[in-house]
Amino acid sequence: MPSVDHRQYITYDPQVRNGEPCIRGLPITVFEIIGRLGAGRAFGQILTDFPQLTRADIMACVEFCEQQLGAALD
Question: Which residues form the domain of 58?
Answer without folding.
Answer: 6-73
